[in-house]
Amino acid sequence: MNQKERLVIAGVLLxxxxxxxxxxxxxxxxxxxxxxxxxxxxxxxxxLVGVFYVLRGSYELKHRLEKEINxxxxxxxxAELWREESKKYIQGLALAIDQQLSKWHLTVAExxxxxxxxxxxxxxxVAEVRNTSEKTAxxxxxxxxxxxxxxxxxxxxxxxxxxxxxxxxxxTKNEELNLNK
Length: 181
Fold this sequence. Notes:
The structure is a single chain. This protein has two domains: 1-86; 104-165, Orthogonal Bundle (Arc Repressor Mutant, subunit A), CATH 1.10.10.10. It has helices spanning 3-30, 34-103, 108-118, 123-130, 134-148, 153-161, 168-180. It is elongated and about 100 Å long. By secondary structure, the chain is mostly helical. It contains seven helices and no strands.
């Protein structure tokens, strides 16, 4: 339910409560039985509770949305900072990977497929990105594995990324240093 719908519902409930209150006033002047007045009073009260409930939900939703926007903005800023700080390393890694792919005598198309596979794309996704058939992507990936002497995607990824993983003892020391700052 969007904000406009919530406001319409709250407005209708408020109008109902006001109309019932007006009816209560006129009924009480006419000497209507007490049970009738109590029943109509309950209707007005329920309508007012509904107004409060809808407006409170709208208020909470607005604040949750603001918090999510702030969190997302902070995440975006952190990601951008990381990208900027690591740009030279990523470019160096991409260049090193490209040099190794050249050593394996991969064609330009096979290099492109290798990079897409390293990014984690499926063969179907590789085919879509390259505007080829899935069969072509599969054949090119098999050529990559054959020329490199690797058995598949996981070995291809491990060949380039295995040494990037920080050993647990180094990671623990880095965490300790960060906590002591």
